[in-house]
Amino acid sequence: MSSHAPSPPEDYDVAVVALSARALARSARRAGLRALSIDLFADADTREHAAKAVKARPSKRGIGFDRKDLLATLRRHAREGLPVALGAGFEHAPRLMAAIGRRNPLRGATPETVALLKDPFAFSDMLAALGVPHPAVARSCEIDGALDGWLSKRAGASGGAHIRRARSGAVASGRYLQRRVDGRPLSALFLANGRDARILGFSEQWADPTPRAPFRYGGAAGSIALPAGLADGIAAALHRIVETTALAGLASADLIVSAGGDAFHLLEINPRPGATLDVFDRGESPSLLALHLAACDGRLPDAFERPASAQAAAVVYARRAVSVTTLQRPVWTADWPACEEIIPAGAPVCTILAAGATPFAARALLAERRAALLESLRAVSTSRPSPNPMVPA
Protein backbone atom coordinates (compact mmCIF):
# COMPACT_ATOMS: atom_id res chain seq x y z
CA MET A 1 0.00 0.00 0.00
CA SER A 2 1.26 3.46 -0.87
CA SER A 3 2.45 5.56 2.05
CA HIS A 4 0.48 8.42 0.49
CA ALA A 5 -2.87 6.62 0.62
CA PRO A 6 -5.44 8.56 2.67
CA SER A 7 -6.07 7.24 6.14
CA PRO A 8 -9.61 6.02 6.86
CA PRO A 9 -11.93 8.48 8.60
CA GLU A 10 -12.03 8.36 12.37
CA ASP A 11 -15.04 6.77 14.02
CA TYR A 12 -17.58 9.24 15.38
CA ASP A 13 -21.11 8.89 16.70
CA VAL A 14 -22.55 11.73 14.62
CA ALA A 15 -21.54 14.55 12.31
CA VAL A 16 -22.97 18.02 12.95
CA VAL A 17 -22.90 20.44 10.02
CA ALA A 18 -24.01 24.07 10.19
CA LEU A 19 -22.81 27.57 9.37
CA SER A 20 -21.67 27.61 13.00
CA ALA A 21 -21.79 24.16 14.62
CA ARG A 22 -20.56 25.15 18.09
CA ALA A 23 -23.93 24.80 19.85
CA LEU A 24 -24.58 21.41 18.24
CA ALA A 25 -21.08 20.19 19.11
CA ARG A 26 -21.61 21.30 22.71
CA SER A 27 -24.94 19.49 22.85
CA ALA A 28 -23.30 16.35 21.48
CA ARG A 29 -20.67 16.51 24.18
CA ARG A 30 -23.38 16.92 26.85
CA ALA A 31 -24.95 13.72 25.51
CA GLY A 32 -21.64 11.84 25.64
CA LEU A 33 -21.40 11.65 21.84
CA ARG A 34 -18.23 11.93 19.78
CA ALA A 35 -19.11 14.50 17.15
CA LEU A 36 -17.42 15.42 13.91
CA SER A 37 -18.14 19.12 13.48
CA ILE A 38 -18.07 20.81 10.08
CA ASP A 39 -18.76 24.53 9.81
CA LEU A 40 -17.33 27.77 8.41
CA PHE A 41 -15.18 28.60 11.43
CA ALA A 42 -13.87 25.60 13.43
CA ASP A 43 -13.22 28.07 16.24
CA ALA A 44 -11.74 27.30 19.64
CA ASP A 45 -15.14 26.73 21.27
CA THR A 46 -16.16 24.21 18.63
CA ARG A 47 -12.83 22.41 18.84
CA GLU A 48 -13.28 22.15 22.61
CA HIS A 49 -16.62 20.35 22.31
CA ALA A 50 -16.22 18.28 19.13
CA ALA A 51 -14.10 15.16 18.78
CA LYS A 52 -12.88 16.84 15.60
CA ALA A 53 -13.72 20.25 14.12
CA VAL A 54 -13.20 20.89 10.41
CA LYS A 55 -13.48 24.23 8.64
CA ALA A 56 -15.39 24.12 5.36
CA ARG A 57 -15.27 26.60 2.51
CA PRO A 58 -18.08 29.17 2.19
CA SER A 59 -20.04 29.62 -1.00
CA LYS A 60 -18.92 32.47 -3.24
CA ARG A 61 -22.56 33.25 -4.03
CA GLY A 62 -23.66 34.28 -0.54
CA ILE A 63 -24.31 32.67 2.83
CA GLY A 64 -23.87 28.91 2.80
CA PHE A 65 -21.39 26.22 1.93
CA ASP A 66 -19.40 25.58 -1.21
CA ARG A 67 -21.20 22.45 -2.40
CA LYS A 68 -18.20 20.57 -3.84
CA ASP A 69 -16.00 21.39 -0.88
CA LEU A 70 -18.58 20.31 1.70
CA LEU A 71 -19.24 16.97 0.01
CA ALA A 72 -15.49 16.36 -0.31
CA THR A 73 -14.98 17.28 3.35
CA LEU A 74 -17.61 14.75 4.41
CA ARG A 75 -16.02 12.04 2.25
CA ARG A 76 -12.63 12.84 3.74
CA HIS A 77 -13.60 12.93 7.40
CA ALA A 78 -16.88 11.01 7.83
CA ARG A 79 -17.19 7.31 7.25
CA GLU A 80 -19.95 6.22 4.90
CA GLY A 81 -23.15 5.73 6.89
CA LEU A 82 -22.26 8.15 9.70
CA PRO A 83 -25.47 9.96 10.72
CA VAL A 84 -25.48 13.70 9.96
CA ALA A 85 -27.46 16.35 11.86
CA LEU A 86 -27.80 19.63 9.98
CA GLY A 87 -28.16 23.07 11.51
CA ALA A 88 -28.51 26.47 9.86
CA GLY A 89 -27.26 26.84 6.31
CA PHE A 90 -29.42 24.40 4.35
CA GLU A 91 -32.83 26.08 4.30
CA HIS A 92 -32.24 27.14 0.69
CA ALA A 93 -30.33 24.01 -0.35
CA PRO A 94 -32.51 20.86 -0.37
CA ARG A 95 -30.48 19.51 -3.30
CA LEU A 96 -27.30 19.73 -1.25
CA MET A 97 -29.12 17.99 1.60
CA ALA A 98 -30.10 15.19 -0.77
CA ALA A 99 -26.52 14.84 -2.00
CA ILE A 100 -25.29 14.50 1.59
CA GLY A 101 -28.01 11.96 2.34
CA ARG A 102 -26.99 9.66 -0.49
CA ARG A 103 -23.85 8.74 1.47
CA ASN A 104 -24.68 9.67 5.04
CA PRO A 105 -28.19 9.36 6.53
CA LEU A 106 -29.73 12.69 7.50
CA ARG A 107 -31.06 12.87 11.04
CA GLY A 108 -33.75 15.49 10.84
CA ALA A 109 -36.03 17.01 8.23
CA THR A 110 -35.91 15.49 4.77
CA PRO A 111 -34.98 17.63 1.76
CA GLU A 112 -38.58 17.38 0.56
CA THR A 113 -39.92 18.66 3.89
CA VAL A 114 -37.45 21.55 3.93
CA ALA A 115 -38.36 22.47 0.35
CA LEU A 116 -42.05 22.62 1.29
CA LEU A 117 -41.59 24.55 4.53
CA LYS A 118 -39.24 27.12 2.97
CA ASP A 119 -41.34 27.73 -0.15
CA PRO A 120 -43.32 30.76 1.07
CA PHE A 121 -46.30 30.19 -1.24
CA ALA A 122 -46.61 26.43 -0.72
CA PHE A 123 -46.19 26.99 3.02
CA SER A 124 -48.89 29.67 3.07
CA ASP A 125 -51.29 27.46 1.12
CA MET A 126 -50.67 24.61 3.55
CA LEU A 127 -51.28 26.81 6.59
CA ALA A 128 -54.51 28.08 5.06
CA ALA A 129 -55.68 24.52 4.45
CA LEU A 130 -54.82 23.57 8.04
CA GLY A 131 -56.52 26.62 9.54
CA VAL A 132 -53.29 28.02 11.02
CA PRO A 133 -53.26 31.84 11.29
CA HIS A 134 -50.46 33.38 9.24
CA PRO A 135 -49.67 36.61 7.38
CA ALA A 136 -50.51 36.87 3.71
CA VAL A 137 -47.74 36.43 1.14
CA ALA A 138 -47.66 37.79 -2.38
CA ARG A 139 -45.61 38.67 -5.42
CA SER A 140 -45.28 42.35 -6.20
CA CYS A 141 -47.41 42.01 -9.32
CA GLU A 142 -50.29 40.84 -7.13
CA ILE A 143 -50.40 44.02 -5.03
CA ASP A 144 -52.49 46.97 -6.15
CA GLY A 145 -51.25 50.32 -4.91
CA ALA A 146 -48.57 51.11 -2.34
CA LEU A 147 -46.61 48.44 -0.51
CA ASP A 148 -46.99 50.02 2.92
CA GLY A 149 -47.40 47.29 5.51
CA TRP A 150 -45.53 44.68 3.48
CA LEU A 151 -42.09 43.18 4.05
CA SER A 152 -39.70 41.92 1.39
CA LYS A 153 -38.02 38.61 2.29
CA ARG A 154 -35.59 36.28 0.58
CA ALA A 155 -37.03 32.79 0.11
CA GLY A 156 -35.17 30.12 2.06
CA ALA A 157 -33.24 32.63 4.17
CA SER A 158 -32.89 32.85 7.95
CA GLY A 159 -31.54 35.25 10.55
CA GLY A 160 -33.55 38.36 9.67
CA ALA A 161 -30.78 40.28 7.88
CA HIS A 162 -32.49 39.63 4.53
CA ILE A 163 -35.80 41.26 5.56
CA ARG A 164 -36.59 44.74 4.25
CA ARG A 165 -39.59 47.04 4.27
CA ALA A 166 -41.13 46.63 0.84
CA ARG A 167 -40.83 49.47 -1.64
CA SER A 168 -42.75 50.22 -4.79
CA GLY A 169 -41.59 48.41 -7.90
CA ALA A 170 -40.80 44.84 -8.81
CA VAL A 171 -39.45 42.49 -6.14
CA ALA A 172 -36.01 41.10 -6.96
CA SER A 173 -35.66 37.50 -8.07
CA GLY A 174 -35.73 35.05 -5.16
CA ARG A 175 -37.68 37.43 -2.93
CA TYR A 176 -41.35 37.63 -1.96
CA LEU A 177 -43.68 39.88 0.01
CA GLN A 178 -45.18 39.10 3.40
CA ARG A 179 -47.79 41.21 5.16
CA ARG A 180 -46.33 42.77 8.31
CA VAL A 181 -48.04 41.76 11.56
CA ASP A 182 -47.65 43.83 14.71
CA GLY A 183 -47.12 42.14 18.05
CA ARG A 184 -44.54 40.39 20.18
CA PRO A 185 -42.01 38.19 18.34
CA LEU A 186 -41.63 34.78 19.97
CA SER A 187 -40.15 31.42 19.08
CA ALA A 188 -41.48 27.98 19.98
CA LEU A 189 -38.80 25.31 20.27
CA PHE A 190 -40.30 21.90 19.56
CA LEU A 191 -39.55 18.28 18.75
CA ALA A 192 -41.28 16.40 15.95
CA ASN A 193 -41.35 12.70 15.15
CA GLY A 194 -43.11 12.83 11.78
CA ARG A 195 -46.54 12.43 13.35
CA ASP A 196 -46.74 14.72 16.38
CA ALA A 197 -44.99 17.69 17.98
CA ARG A 198 -43.90 18.40 21.53
CA ILE A 199 -43.15 22.01 22.55
CA LEU A 200 -40.07 22.30 24.77
CA GLY A 201 -40.32 26.01 25.52
CA PHE A 202 -41.04 29.52 24.31
CA SER A 203 -38.52 32.34 24.01
CA GLU A 204 -38.84 36.01 23.18
CA GLN A 205 -36.74 37.36 20.33
CA TRP A 206 -35.55 40.79 19.29
CA ALA A 207 -33.79 42.47 16.41
CA ASP A 208 -30.46 44.29 16.30
CA PRO A 209 -31.37 46.70 13.50
CA THR A 210 -29.21 48.63 11.08
CA PRO A 211 -30.42 51.01 8.35
CA ARG A 212 -29.85 48.33 5.70
CA ALA A 213 -31.05 45.39 7.84
CA PRO A 214 -33.83 46.63 10.15
CA PHE A 215 -34.82 43.10 11.20
CA ARG A 216 -31.36 41.57 11.69
CA TYR A 217 -31.45 38.89 14.39
CA GLY A 218 -30.41 40.22 17.79
CA GLY A 219 -31.02 37.54 20.38
CA ALA A 220 -33.43 35.43 22.41
CA ALA A 221 -34.37 34.90 26.06
CA GLY A 222 -36.43 32.24 27.80
CA SER A 223 -38.20 30.33 28.96
CA ILE A 224 -41.32 32.49 28.51
CA ALA A 225 -44.69 31.53 30.01
CA LEU A 226 -47.73 31.95 27.77
CA PRO A 227 -51.43 31.75 28.65
CA ALA A 228 -52.56 28.13 28.55
CA GLY A 229 -55.09 28.70 25.79
CA LEU A 230 -52.54 30.39 23.55
CA ALA A 231 -49.90 27.72 24.17
CA ASP A 232 -52.44 24.98 23.44
CA GLY A 233 -53.42 26.69 20.19
CA ILE A 234 -49.81 26.87 19.06
CA ALA A 235 -49.25 23.23 20.01
CA ALA A 236 -52.31 22.16 18.01
CA ALA A 237 -51.08 24.10 14.97
CA LEU A 238 -47.64 22.50 15.16
CA HIS A 239 -49.22 19.05 15.47
CA ARG A 240 -51.17 19.60 12.25
CA ILE A 241 -48.07 20.87 10.44
CA VAL A 242 -45.94 17.91 11.53
CA GLU A 243 -48.69 15.46 10.63
CA THR A 244 -48.92 17.00 7.16
CA THR A 245 -45.20 17.41 6.40
CA ALA A 246 -43.70 14.43 8.31
CA LEU A 247 -41.21 16.85 9.89
CA ALA A 248 -38.80 15.09 12.26
CA GLY A 249 -36.27 16.32 14.81
CA LEU A 250 -35.67 19.57 16.65
CA ALA A 251 -37.21 22.65 15.03
CA SER A 252 -38.59 26.05 15.90
CA ALA A 253 -41.57 28.17 14.92
CA ASP A 254 -41.32 31.95 14.58
CA LEU A 255 -44.49 33.62 15.82
CA ILE A 256 -46.02 37.02 16.37
CA VAL A 257 -48.28 37.12 19.44
CA SER A 258 -50.92 39.83 19.68
CA ALA A 259 -50.62 42.64 22.22
CA GLY A 260 -53.44 41.07 24.22
CA GLY A 261 -51.64 37.73 24.33
CA ASP A 262 -54.67 35.83 23.05
CA ALA A 263 -53.82 35.26 19.38
CA PHE A 264 -50.84 34.42 17.19
CA HIS A 265 -49.65 34.41 13.60
CA LEU A 266 -47.15 31.80 12.45
CA LEU A 267 -44.41 33.39 10.35
CA GLU A 268 -42.28 30.38 9.50
CA ILE A 269 -40.94 27.01 10.58
CA ASN A 270 -37.18 26.56 10.93
CA PRO A 271 -36.84 22.81 10.28
CA ARG A 272 -33.56 22.30 12.13
CA PRO A 273 -31.83 23.06 15.46
CA GLY A 274 -31.19 26.78 15.76
CA ALA A 275 -30.14 29.73 17.88
CA THR A 276 -32.20 28.88 20.97
CA LEU A 277 -29.96 25.92 21.80
CA ASP A 278 -28.05 28.49 23.85
CA VAL A 279 -31.23 29.26 25.79
CA PHE A 280 -32.51 25.74 26.50
CA ASP A 281 -29.58 23.30 26.12
CA ARG A 282 -27.89 23.73 29.49
CA GLY A 283 -27.96 23.00 33.20
CA GLU A 284 -30.07 20.08 34.31
CA SER A 285 -31.96 19.89 31.00
CA PRO A 286 -31.18 16.96 28.70
CA SER A 287 -29.06 17.37 25.60
CA LEU A 288 -31.21 18.74 22.81
CA LEU A 289 -29.17 16.89 20.20
CA ALA A 290 -29.90 13.64 22.03
CA LEU A 291 -33.61 14.50 22.00
CA HIS A 292 -33.33 15.43 18.31
CA LEU A 293 -31.85 12.04 17.44
CA ALA A 294 -34.47 10.22 19.52
CA ALA A 295 -37.28 12.16 17.82
CA CYS A 296 -35.90 11.14 14.44
CA ASP A 297 -36.36 7.55 15.63
CA GLY A 298 -39.97 8.35 16.54
CA ARG A 299 -39.52 8.94 20.28
CA LEU A 300 -40.79 12.13 21.94
CA PRO A 301 -40.23 12.86 25.64
CA ASP A 302 -43.21 12.73 27.97
CA ALA A 303 -41.87 15.86 29.66
CA PHE A 304 -38.97 18.27 29.29
CA GLU A 305 -37.16 19.64 32.34
CA ARG A 306 -36.37 23.24 31.49
CA PRO A 307 -33.39 25.00 33.08
CA ALA A 308 -34.20 26.41 36.51
CA SER A 309 -32.99 29.90 35.59
CA ALA A 310 -33.72 32.06 32.58
CA GLN A 311 -31.08 32.54 29.91
CA ALA A 312 -30.52 35.23 27.32
CA ALA A 313 -28.22 34.94 24.32
CA ALA A 314 -27.40 37.56 21.70
CA VAL A 315 -25.14 38.07 18.72
CA VAL A 316 -22.74 41.00 18.90
CA TYR A 317 -21.97 42.50 15.49
CA ALA A 318 -18.94 44.58 14.58
CA ARG A 319 -19.79 48.25 14.09
CA ARG A 320 -16.43 48.77 12.38
CA ALA A 321 -13.82 46.33 11.13
CA VAL A 322 -12.15 44.88 14.20
CA SER A 323 -9.60 42.35 15.46
CA VAL A 324 -9.78 40.83 18.94
CA THR A 325 -6.04 40.16 19.13
CA THR A 326 -5.47 42.51 22.07
CA LEU A 327 -8.74 41.82 23.90
CA GLN A 328 -9.08 39.52 26.87
CA ARG A 329 -12.01 37.25 26.16
CA PRO A 330 -14.92 37.62 28.60
CA VAL A 331 -16.03 34.34 30.17
CA TRP A 332 -19.65 35.00 29.15
CA THR A 333 -18.94 34.77 25.42
CA ALA A 334 -19.12 31.95 22.90
CA ASP A 335 -17.99 31.68 19.27
CA TRP A 336 -14.96 33.87 20.02
CA PRO A 337 -13.04 34.58 16.79
CA ALA A 338 -9.46 33.64 16.09
CA CYS A 339 -6.92 36.28 17.07
CA GLU A 340 -5.64 36.67 13.51
CA GLU A 341 -9.11 37.24 12.05
CA ILE A 342 -10.17 40.70 10.89
CA ILE A 343 -13.95 40.94 11.28
CA PRO A 344 -15.60 43.34 8.84
CA ALA A 345 -18.21 45.89 9.84
CA GLY A 346 -21.63 44.28 10.13
CA ALA A 347 -20.35 40.74 10.67
CA PRO A 348 -20.93 38.74 13.87
CA VAL A 349 -18.12 38.98 16.40
CA CYS A 350 -19.37 36.47 18.96
CA THR A 351 -22.32 35.30 21.04
CA ILE A 352 -22.85 36.67 24.54
CA LEU A 353 -24.75 34.88 27.30
CA ALA A 354 -26.42 35.87 30.57
CA ALA A 355 -28.56 34.05 33.12
CA GLY A 356 -31.06 35.46 35.57
CA ALA A 357 -34.00 34.61 37.79
CA THR A 358 -36.35 35.82 35.04
CA PRO A 359 -36.00 36.53 31.32
CA PHE A 360 -36.19 40.25 32.14
CA ALA A 361 -33.27 39.95 34.57
CA ALA A 362 -31.26 37.88 32.09
CA ARG A 363 -31.83 40.46 29.35
CA ALA A 364 -30.83 43.31 31.66
CA LEU A 365 -27.51 41.61 32.46
CA LEU A 366 -27.06 40.77 28.78
CA ALA A 367 -27.50 44.44 27.86
CA GLU A 368 -24.78 45.44 30.34
CA ARG A 369 -22.39 42.87 28.92
CA ARG A 370 -23.17 43.86 25.35
CA ALA A 371 -22.47 47.53 26.08
CA ALA A 372 -19.17 46.65 27.75
CA LEU A 373 -18.06 44.46 24.86
CA LEU A 374 -19.05 47.02 22.23
CA GLU A 375 -17.00 49.65 24.05
CA SER A 376 -13.99 47.29 24.11
CA LEU A 377 -14.44 46.59 20.40
CA ARG A 378 -14.70 50.31 19.63
CA ALA A 379 -11.33 50.87 21.27
CA VAL A 380 -9.58 48.32 19.04
CA SER A 381 -11.51 48.80 15.79
CA THR A 382 -9.60 48.95 12.52
CA SER A 383 -10.40 50.12 9.02
CA ARG A 384 -9.05 46.95 7.37
CA PRO A 385 -11.74 45.09 5.39
CA SER A 386 -11.99 41.31 5.25
CA PRO A 387 -14.51 38.92 3.67
CA ASN A 388 -16.68 37.03 6.16
CA PRO A 389 -18.86 34.03 5.26
CA MET A 390 -21.65 35.10 7.62
CA VAL A 391 -22.28 38.47 5.94
CA PRO A 392 -25.31 38.15 3.63
CA ALA A 393 -25.05 39.11 0.01
From TrEMBL:
One of its GO terms (molecular function) is ATP binding. InterPro entries: ATP-grasp, ATP-grasp_PylC-type, UCP016817_carboligase. Gene3D superfamilies: ATP-grasp fold, B domain (3.30.470.20). It comes from the Bacteria. The keyword ATP-binding applies. The keyword Nucleotide-binding applies. Keywords: ATP-binding, Nucleotide-binding. SUPFAM superfamilies: Glutathione synthetase ATP-binding domain-like. Residues 94-297 form the ATP-grasp domain. This is ATP-grasp domain-containing protein. It comes from Hansschlegelia plantiphila.
